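Hi,

I'm pasting everything inline rather than attaching a file, because the server keeps stripping attachments. The sequence lines come first, and each chain or strand is labelled.
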Amino acid sequence: MSNAHSNKATGPIPDNAATKTADYFDERLGIYGAAKKNLRKVFPDHWSFMLGEVALYSFIIILLTGVWLTLFFKPSMTEVVYDGSYVPLQGIHMSEAYASTLDISFDIRGGLAIRQIHHWAALIFVSSLFVHMFRIFFTGAFRKPREMNWLFGFLLLVLAMVNGFTGYSLPDDLLSGTGLRIAEGVVLAIPLVGTYLQFFLFGGEFPGTDIVPRLFTIHVLLVPAIMVGLLTVHLILVFYHKHTQFPGAGRTEKNVVGLPLLPVYTAKAGGFFFIVFGITAALGGLVQINPIWSYGPYHPGQITAGSQPDWYIGFLEGSLRIMPNWETNLWGHTISWNVLIPSLVVPGVMFTFIAAYPWLEAWVTGDKREHHLLDRPRNVPVRTGLGAAWIAMYLVLWIGGGNDIIATHFHLSINSITWTMRVLFFVAPVLAFVVARRIAMALQRRDKDKVLHGRETGIIKKLPHGEFIEVHEPLDAERLHFLTSHEQPTPAALPPAVDENGVARKLKPGEKLRVRLSRWYFDEKVEKPTAEEYKEITSGHGHH
Amino acid sequence: MSSNHDMSEEKLPAAHAPAGTLDPFADPGLPEHEPRRTDIDEKAAKRAERQVSLLFVISMLATVGFIASYVTIDKYRIVDLFFFGKIGALNLALGVTLGIALFCIGAGAVHWARTLMTDEEIVQERHELKSSPEDREAGIREFQQGAADSGIGRRPLIRRTMIGAMALVPLSGVVLLRDLGPLPGNKLRHTFWGRKGPEGRTVIINENTGKPLKPDHIIKGSLTMAKPEGLNQETEDHQPNEHYLAEMGKAVILLVRLEPDEIKSKKQLEWSYQGIVAYSKICTHVGCPIGLYEQQTHHLLCPCHQSTFDLADDGAVVFGPAARSLPQLKITVNESTGFLEAVGDFAEPVGPSFWERG
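And the predicted assembly:
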């Protein structure tokens, strides 16, 4: 295993109680084999590798606090008259779900803290999943052999958003009911089966009395069970594939360089769990989130201005807001494009693109090798541009979801904000692509410049004949290797139109498109400095 | 460790090339380990040890503080905290002490790892995931043998009936979902207002006061939210009415007073009473209640997605994602009581569109 490691533990194996206990378990479970393989497993280090950890830890926090909340929450829409300690709502008719959430918030000690930790952890969970996913995307960590794990992670992200929505719909307050009402409208817009789906989902007309207990089962059992399963496979695969690493001196596709699981990552990652939990707990104590008591119980005829969903549903909200009001009536049937497109088609296309990206890119590049060294985002400008474009599109929708808040805070016309977002939805991704790609290329040029001319030291030297020059310091061997070790694929080309026998060649379907995309990916590039160039400049001419 | 060992295969030829033509960009191998202060200075190591322990001690104290807060602080006590404002004292104390207790364990562990545990990097080999050709062949052979032993290829009758049985069996699960809810029927087409037939009169009740409305209760420039008489949170025998919210979700209306000459549509004028018009409060986009009224323009704005309706023009959409006008409810006044009444039901389904709406 750690064949290159020098300070190995030696001496006789101690014959004490600990060893005996371990022996007991080994004879029944075979633990020494697993220990030999995994205890000193190496993990490479980089700050961005902690993003997935944040996701994992916030998920654990959600599970722990969530179990506690189920001990007190009553998932029932049975109507009760509130008689708890929150004076403004005393004597008001409300569901048991809302009343028990008020009890958790006011009458059960620590209840509000745990509720707020649960909610904060959920917000952090989805955020960290997104950022983690983009880290994987921009560094190309999704490439072979990790495509399947990308897909598992993608499913975790989608399920996290679903479960977040079902979660904040449970308290049955005015805000959560408004979210459900919108969801009802979305379900109704589904052609052919929408009306039936809505009646089956809600157990009749909206809101009915079934939706909260049903969402509760989905929220605490169905989705979390699937997520725990996916997460387990996700982590097993991270172990099995061995973590990717950034290129650098001594780091190759065939090795993994880093620190051992025991003790360094046990301490660092285990410690980091407590740090994340500690910060989330402090947030739960200090920063109010989702104050359901100020919204009041749900009533389909009431609403507060400025209703906003949790942040990760905001892009759907914005999508619904900026969509033009198209509806078709054909042969007695209604198709609500104004709901269908923004709430199902647009997110469907955006997220399918994410899920499918590893296979799309592999098809374009035709690359069938394993990749364990990460790409620096600048070295793959088109991929980086595509990621930026996706983020731009998401952000436009997300900002669109707050168009009323923007309008009231900045005294702008809501109509012009909405129109701006409609235009930006198409323009911003293109701009983001072009800008990100240009920046990536420019950074490559700077790398090249550094390799050939060294680092600018900031030291100005006066030469005997009066000329001033800035001293450039040549890079060390490690840095030179780091800046030049990336690959620069040549774009695919179509084979000659006729084969060696003069017979017209038949192309595979899609081959032309593939070649065109491959050119788009790789045609324009900043040529890496060659050894000859480097020697030419470093020998003789000195630095300039 | 030797640099040769860490050299990538691709770069090996360069390393063996004669001196002078060496690739300047070749992998120089893992750099030498540089010791940290705590690796060589026992005093620094001791200091780090004390810092780690201090963090663990703070954590212990915070846990004691958590328990003490839980027991001693009154759960209804409010404190005024700089920057955070008025805040529940117990919630604050529990969150902060728990946060400190957890954070300090984490900070201690990480500080320990960074200062006292090894930071010497280890190199481990990777192996391609692909199986060796022998394993590949053996695996395929095992499968072939298993398939041959089962006879699944030679006995198509078994194969096809098995596929058929497996394909059908999930249907039971789908059928079992049928009782999740009733069939829609024409429930989405009717509201509580239509309960007495097409010309039946229903008294309009002010949602806030619970009392019937007279025309002079409707003041210019304000919105009055109203519901049909007989639709209450409790049934007549004082049981909770479980259909109340579902019925309100369709029946809730808004009453607004306009100048009769401001009303642009003839139908709207006919369905109004002295300039008082009644519209469904449920947005035709995805069903949010509409609550923001701009009296200068007679525009009604939905706070969810900003669909804007012109109340002086048949409730027509003037902006936003809603595709259909707000349904109007025909009203009149009962000559004997002087109360506003609705005549029959809405002429069209209220709320979001649906496939069968037409």
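The two ends of chain B are 77 Å apart (CA to CA).

If the labels don't parse on your end, tell me and I'll reformat.
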